[in-house]
From TrEMBL:
Top-level EC class as recorded in UniProt: ligase
Residues involved in NAD(+) binding: D35, A36, E37, Y38, D39, S84, I85, E121, R144, E180, K307, K331
Domain BRCT: 608-689
GO cellular component, one term: cytosol
GO MF entries: DNA binding; DNA ligase (NAD+) activity; metal ion binding
Cofactor: Mg(2+); Mn(2+)
Record keyword Signal present: no
Active-site residue list: K123
Catalytic activity: NAD(+) + (deoxyribonucleotide)n-3'-hydroxyl + 5'-phospho-(deoxyribonucleotide)m = (deoxyribonucleotide)n+m + AMP + beta-nicotinamide D-nucleotide
UniProt-recorded name of the protein: DNA ligase
Family as reported in the entry's similarity comment: Belongs to the NAD-dependent DNA ligase family. LigA subfamily.
Amino acid sequence: MAVPDDDVRRAAALRERLHHHAHCYYVLDDPQIPDAEYDKLFQELQALEARHPQLRTPDSPTQRVGGAPLDAFAKVRHRVPMLSIRTETDIEASGARNFDARVRRELGLAEEAPPIDYVAELKFDGLALNLRYEAGVLVQAATRGDGEVGEDVTQNIRTIGQIPLRLADGAPPVLEVRGEVYMRRDDFERLNARQREKIAAGARGEKTFVNPRNAAAGAVRQLDPQVTRQRPLSFFAYGWGEVTPVEQGGPAWRTHFEALQALRGWGLPVSDRVVQAHGADDLVAYHQAIGRERDGLPFDIDGVVYKVDSLTLQRQLGFVTREPRWAVAHKFPAQEQVTTVESIDIFVGRTGKLTPVARLKPVFVGGVTVTNATLHNEDEARRKDVRVGDAVIVRRAGDVIPEVVAVVAEQRTHAAPAFEMPRHCPVCGSQAVREEGEVDWRCSGGLYCGAQRKQALLHFAQRRAMDIEGLGEKLVDQLVDAGVIRVLPDLYRLGLSQLIALERMGDKSAQNLLAGLEASKSTTLPRFLFALGIRHVGEATARDLARHFGTLDRVMQASTDDLLAVPDVGPVVAESIHTFFAQPHNREVVEQLRACGVHWAESEPAPQAALPLAGITVVLTGTLPTLSREEAKGLLEAAGAKVAGSVSKKTGYVVAGTEAGGKLDRARELSIPILDEEGLKSLLAQGAP
Ligand SMILES: NC(=O)c1ccc[n+]([C@@H]2O[C@H](COP(=O)([O-])OP(=O)(O)OC[C@H]3O[C@@H](n4cnc5c(N)ncnc54)[C@H](O)[C@@H]3O)[C@@H](O)[C@H]2O)c1
Ligand SMILES: [Zn+2]
């Protein structure tokens, strides 16, 4: 039968594209398209070749394993070829039944013959390794390469802590262990964070990795073992290559499961999720159970693997070109897919962080439909150069939020402008600020900003700020969601009827809240300054500001230079305070709060040195008879002292109550004066001698 021209051309085009992508993936460790995309092309070629066997060339990607080894490494000829595994493309449970049916057919079993025993394992998404042990000692580690010839990566593999350099007693004279080297998800996230920092600091030749498999492959195929050492890799053993034969004293394994137990006994890591399965039903159950567990696993898997357990049956089934007939990989939905960016929006978080988010053409990835993916921050978005209209690779693995990992460069058809981070908050229009040394832009609107309102209210109400009794998270959600509170001063305009109208709000709690609000109006300047939620202004800075300037108006009018004169206030903090009060809407909020009756005692600005305990550090330990820890701290700080958490040579006094521990011992060691509560009180009254 003649092959239609179209099919000939399509097959050639597919072969060329697959060759190109296999080279990028296996040889360069730099995949350009997601696996799901590659698999689609691969299956299309397989189908064409099945229809027209004449199209099947010996160099077709469907006939080969992996990629050629790199010249940079010494080559290793595998004594037993390292094959691939056939993929069951039906990702439903029926995939397991297809495999079972095929095995039974190939073994010529009658329908009523008993179920076959299998082993079910995780399909780790990493890189295959062959570890050769002679007399129990690791002598060589090699990559799979093209299945016949791999790369010698022994020096790199020696840096992986989980791979024993010497096996426990009893291992056969020759043992080749096959397994997967992979990177845990948390290690991957940390590595990429480090890489981003290096890139930000201007390091050349550094890059981030698209996924843990890619990071693991890059680390294993490093020319410098020192670099591999810094990349956290893990390993699971799932099979073997050459092993001393039984006649020469080798192991007499009868089943795959038994062999894995032996490997574990000699010190090799074998996953504890390897199970024996009886017939197709057990395989289906395993597939379902692992599918549910997948997101919670600390590493990526792209499916499960089923293997015929009996080694006799395995031999009977044998191999096709690149795959054993006794095993199959049953995949899960891919964790990476290609889709199109429809727009890039800015999401404003509860704390004011601005995050660029790609709105996507809906895509099914990692088991869910994804419509948005984070671009993290300005630098990431620019580095990846994501633009509206681009085809992008989206990754969703585990509980991590979906992420755009790369642009599919070969598919950019037009040139939308490069992404620009907006200079104003899209929610409230306030100035956006990116501080020196920070990666994030933030809205400076604080409580004025709709996105930050709930967080700002909670911060405002907390005990250490305005101390509003009865205003918790649930109520804040209700008040903001119902539109009752739009700006902060609305809080002090709440009426009983409005509150009672809220769901689950009784008369009593409404009364209590109103009383709490009323009581909070009488406050102190440091509390009020802290409550405003100005970035970088914590309690200590608020106190310093109050002490230095004495009145709120002076703080609000202060220039950055004036602010820099406050002890412990640096340029970033000064700038943040200045920006906050420079914005009319923030001044408006302050005015309205005052108009609602929020008040405090103001004082003249106090020069630091005038305070009796200025410059003195005090450490508190144990329980005092009448003063609480907070009260003692407040009194000391009001007198200008610094309260520290640990005793050092710089400590001026240690105030010790009952059950004082190590701090007291340390004070004695350093001969630091120790005071009880009485001593503290007289110190406060008289100042330091
Ligand atoms: N994105 C791209 O451009 C691109 C290019 C080429 C290949 N790929 C991807 O590579 C894969 C195909 O490559 P492959 O031939 O290496 O097949 P494979 O990775 O799908 O399956 C074979 C491999 O599975 C591994 N494995 C993991 N757990 C195992 C277990 N418990 N038992 C046995 N083996 C286990 C072994 O390393 C083995 O070599 C596909 O997922 C494909 O999408 C992607
Ligand atoms: Zn805002």
